[in-house]
Design brief:
Elements: H1 22-38, H2 83-89, E1 98-102, E2 105-106, E3 110-112, E4 122-123, H3 125-138, E5 144-148, H4 154-159, E6 165-166, E7 181-182, E8 187-189, E9 191-196, E10 212-216, H5 220-230, E11 239-244, H6 247-255, E12 261-265, H7 266-275, E13 279-282, E14 289-291, E15 294-295, H8 300-315, H9 321-328, H10 330-333
Parallel strand pairs: 1-5, 1-6, 10-11, 10-12
Antiparallel strand pairs: 2-3, 3-4, 6-15, 7-15, 8-14, 9-12, 9-13
Helix pairs in contact: 1-6, 3-8
């Protein structure tokens, strides 16, 4: 777009609405890039594929071949302090905080609201959960050090010990549970197509033939596209080569006419459509996925504690899961939260 017309006949997003359009988006993305540059260098990690049984009492690996329900591969809840939690509590002074990897540009999930004042504090559904965890573990909801983590750096940040956990619309899947431990699910979603309203793309179907699709590197969206194209479920002519560090970068690419569609979690896509009214969700979700809190594989006590917090959060009728949903997500996902609420959790062990 931006001069020449993009496929489908649309021009640069009619004034590029939503937080002031591309200019604001570019600023936000630049902030993310700056934060990423400030993080320590990443190390190359090797996936642990040691076979284990699914019914163990650790958060250990579950081999991809044996994995059928990754959202159930977690530990039973507990409020007890173990070595991981004691180490967090032993931090002194200003360092006595929970260090959490989050997003800072996913509207209504984890984003800096430019209208919230000079500090532009992080807000959103995921941020509410982080404050809840900090309150339970450290007794102070604000005892948090937020670290903006790009989509493709979530697992390395956990493995390298730069964060205690990641709360960042992170899907639990069989591939990832070989590298990190997940909590029980706290949100249900699915992959969906986002495209301009005027686009001939109708959903995840043959209308994507010869179209350019953007996904975030290391995302479940890209993995699904790659697998489906190899299996012949996605047209061979569909170009899936465009990947970006953060999923919001795909919206900017779409606005600039560099791609024809975006594939990402429907929950995130709905928020992006709220930012830019010239785009919309196309078709239904074509996967069923669950978000979880990601932690180190040996942090069993922290996994159990977070699972207990999630149980309490969902039961809380005053300031719990439903309250956060209605505050942040009902405007984009609908007032009925049942489609987004995860099922009752199942654990590797109940005792």
């Amino acid at each position: 777009m931006n001069g020449p017309e993009a496929k489908g006949g649309t021009t640069v997003r009619d004034a590029l609405r939503g937080w002031g359009g591309v200019t604001a988006m570019a600023v936000v993305c630049a902030l993310v890039a700056l934060v990423a540059l400030c993080l320590p260098p990443l190390t190359t990690t090797t996936r642990n594929t040691t076979a284990t049984t699914a019914n163990t009492d650790t958060a250990g690996t579950v081999v991809e071949e044996d994995c059928e329900a990754p959202e159930k591969q977690t530990l039973s809840p507990s409020s007890a302090d173990g070595d991981t939690i004691r180490a967090i509590k032993s931090r002194e002074g200003e360092k006595r905080k929970l260090v959490v990897g989050v997003d800072q540009n996913s509207y209504r999930w984890g984003y800096r609201n430019p209208n919230s004042g000079k500090t532009a504090e992080l807000e959103g559904f995921d941020i509410d959960l982080v404050h809840r965890i900090a309150k339970d573990i450290l007794g102070d909801a604000d005892a948090v050090q937020f670290k903006a983590i790009p989509t493709d750096q979530r697992i390395p940040a956990i493995e390298d010990g730069r964060v205690d956990m990641v709360v960042r619309t992170m899907t639990i899947n069989c591939d990832r549970i070989g590298d990190v431990a997940f909590s029980a699910p706290y949100f249900k979603t699915g992959q969906q197509v986002l495209a301009p309203k005027s686009s001939p793309v109708k959903g995840y179907d043959d209308t994507l033939a010869d179209r350019r699709i953007c996904t975030a590197a290391g995302s479940t969206a890209y993995a699904a596209l790659e697998a489906d194209q190899k299996a012949g479920k996605l047209p061979a002519g569909t170009d899936i080569s465009t990947t970006v560090p953060n999923q919001l970068d795909c919206l900017v690419r779409l606005q600039l006419g560099e791609v024809d569609a975006v594939v990402t979690d429907g929950a995130l896509a709905a928020s992006q459509a709220a930012q830019d009214p010239t785009v919309q969700l196309k078709g239904e979700a074509f996967t069923a996925e669950y978000y979880g809190v990601a932690m180190k594989k040996d942090a069993d006590d922290l996994v159990r504690r977070v699972n207990q917090i999630l149980v309490d959060w969902r039961k809380d009728t005053a300031n719990g899961w439903l309250w956060s949903y209605e505050k942040w997500l009902s405007a984009t996902l609908g007032k009925d939260a049942k489609n987004s609420e995860p099922p009752a959790p199942q654990y590797l062990r109940t005792t």
